């Protein structure tokens, strides 16, 4: 997990009451970092632990970090005369269950209230965020998926777990989401409702493109699409009317976004041109393949002795094409660099006629393709560059939108 001092700099949770539910996943120890980050950001954090969580981490840790009593039993009454499982959820602005086991999700989804946490969760009328953490076979079990879907359909929010090595020694999905992702989800929910993009039309490109060699092979790159998807999602949350042209990714369509899926650079260009006219703001986060095979074989290429030479030709630079026809539209590009970051990014800004370029060092560990976080420098056409600390892609998306709306957007008169 990341150091919380690097997170959400300047984000203020003062005056917010947060219930942190901790359950018996091996990731329970990570809840201490979550509690600590939320407290440092000014929140009044109240921890409720299940019995299983107490076997993994001590309640004294949370008491010390939050300076509040930790609730363990449904009959606990830290304030005499107050029924804690009702009074606490009533005054909470948000309830976060992290880590959440299959057991707690199943109980809540089925209305079982047999301990302090499940009881408080069913009493709560504030937004509830659930960050699952469990073995991948449990997480992908149809019963667990059914329980999560039930809660999602009822409006409960999930912070999807990551994939990787799990404590049980297996590899797969089920790791508790990163600290930065959890904290930014909390911030987004608590500061949600910012609707400063209402009526503004955005066109976003995302993901890689694939340039076919033959029916089973292609030329592409490592882009996961996460940055573009985060921007599209954030803009839609803020009221924007968002169309996203996406290359092939594993990501689900962001809520409220009109998604057009394409494969090749040529298909992306065509879809962008088709949707360009109404767009007020274009954000080009796609990692478009710069070259494609001159010929695509109709049949699978059979291997031969010796070399295979692939002849590649340039694809069209989509952003440069938009730059030539942009008029008064706001045009934002990304620059993926491994050296002379600012200089190369500024050159792209001028050559492609951009208003803003977001430069990132793709050679940085944790600042590269596929990661949930990134370290970027914002270089506007006019004004000073801004070097941002490592942030989650969701935070970067919101921060870019903050910059655009305050520095670049001029509302039509
Ligand atoms: N871009 C695009 N079409 C391309 C290549 C890039 O629209 N064929 C856009 C990207 O979406 C990004 C910006 O141009 O917003 C810069 O992309 P990047 O890959 O960093 O640079 P390139 O222009 O491809 O230059 P180079 O590969 O030489 O760094």
Can you characterise this structure?
By secondary structure, the protein is of the alpha/beta class. It folds into 2 domains: 187 residues, Flavin prenyltransferase-like (Rossmann fold), CATH 3.40.50; 192 residues, CoaB-like (Rossmann fold). The protein is built from 14 helices and 21 strands. The strands form 6 sheets. It has an 8-stranded mixed beta sheet with strand order 12-11-8-13-16-17-19-20, sandwiched between helices. Strands 2-1-3-4-5 form a 5-stranded parallel beta sheet, sandwiched between helices. The longest helix is centred in the last third of the chain and has 16 residues. The relative contact order is 0.10. The structure holds cytidine-5'-triphosphate.
In brief:
The protein has 413 residues and is of the alpha/beta class.
How do the helices and strands line up, and which of them pair or pack?
Elements: E1 17-22, H1 30-40, E2 44-49, H2 51-56, H3 59-66, H4 84-91, E3 94-100, H5 102-109, H6 116-123, E4 128-132, H7 136-139, H8 142-153, E5 157-158, E6 162-165, E7 171-175, H9 179-190, E8 201-206, E9 211-214, E10 217-219, H10 226-237, E11 241-246, E12 258-261, H11 265-276, E13 281-284, E14 291-293, E15 312-314, H12 318-324, E16 330-337, H13 341-351, E17 356-361, E18 373-374, E19 376-380, E20 386-387, E21 391-392, H14 393-408
Parallel strand pairs: 1-2, 1-3, 3-4, 4-5, 8-11, 8-13, 11-12, 13-16, 16-17
Antiparallel strand pairs: 6-7, 9-10, 14-15, 17-19, 18-21, 19-20
Cytidine-5'-triphosphate binds at residues 205, 265, 284, 286-288, 290, 315, 317-319, 333-336, 348.
């Amino acid at each position: 997990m990341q150091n919380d001092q690097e997170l959400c700099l300047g984000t203020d949770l003062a005056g917010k009451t947060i219930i942190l539910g901790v359950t018996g996943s091996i990731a329970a120890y990570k809840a201490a970092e979550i509690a600590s980050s939320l407290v440092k950001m000014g929140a009044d954090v109240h921890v409720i632990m299940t019995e299983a969580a107490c076997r993994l981490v001590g309640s004294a840790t949370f008491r010390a970090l939050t300076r509040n009593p930790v609730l363990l039993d449904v009959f606990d009454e830290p304030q005499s005369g107050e029924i804690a499982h009702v009074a606490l959820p009533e005054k909470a602005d948000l309830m976060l269950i992290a880590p959440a086991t299959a057991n707690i999700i199943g109980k809540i989804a089925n209305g079982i209230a047999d301990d302090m946490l499940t009881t408080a969760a069913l009493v709560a009328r504030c937004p509830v965020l659930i960050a699952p953490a469990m073995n991948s076979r449990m997480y992908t079990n149809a019963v667990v998926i059914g329980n999560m879907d039930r809660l999602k359909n009822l409006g409960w929010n999930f912070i999807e777990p990551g994939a990787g090595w799990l404590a049980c020694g297996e590899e797969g999905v089920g790791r508790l989401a990163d600290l930065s992702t959890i904290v930014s989800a909390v911030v987004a929910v608590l500061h949600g409702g910012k609707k400063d993009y209402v009526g503004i039309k955005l066109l976003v490109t995302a993901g890689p493109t694939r340039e076919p060699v033959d029916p089973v092979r292609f030329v592409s790159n490592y882009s996961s699409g996460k940055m573009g998807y985060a921007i599209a999602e954030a803009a839609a949350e803020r009221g924007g009317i968002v169309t996203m042209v996406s290359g092939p990714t594993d990501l689900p369509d962001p809520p409220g976004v009109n998604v057009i899926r394409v494969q090749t650079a040529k298909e992306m260009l065509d879809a962008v041109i088709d949707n360009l006219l109404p767009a007020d703001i274009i954000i080009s986060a796609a990692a478009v393949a710069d070259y494609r095979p001159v010929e695509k074989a109709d049949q699978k290429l059979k291997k031969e002795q010796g070399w295979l030479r692939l002849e590649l030709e340039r694809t069209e630079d989509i952003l440069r094409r938009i730059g030539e026809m942009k008029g008064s539209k706001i045009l934002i590009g990304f620059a993926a660099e491994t050296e002379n970051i600012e200089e190369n990014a500024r050159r792209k800004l001028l050559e492609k006629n951009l208003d803003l370029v977001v430069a990132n060092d793709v050679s940085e560990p944790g600042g590269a393709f596929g990661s949930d976080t990134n370290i970027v420098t914002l270089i506007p056409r006019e004004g000073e560059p801004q070097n941002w600390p490592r942030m989650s892609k969701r935070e970067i998306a919101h921060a870019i939108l903050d910059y655009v709306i305050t520095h670049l957007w001029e509302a039509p008169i």
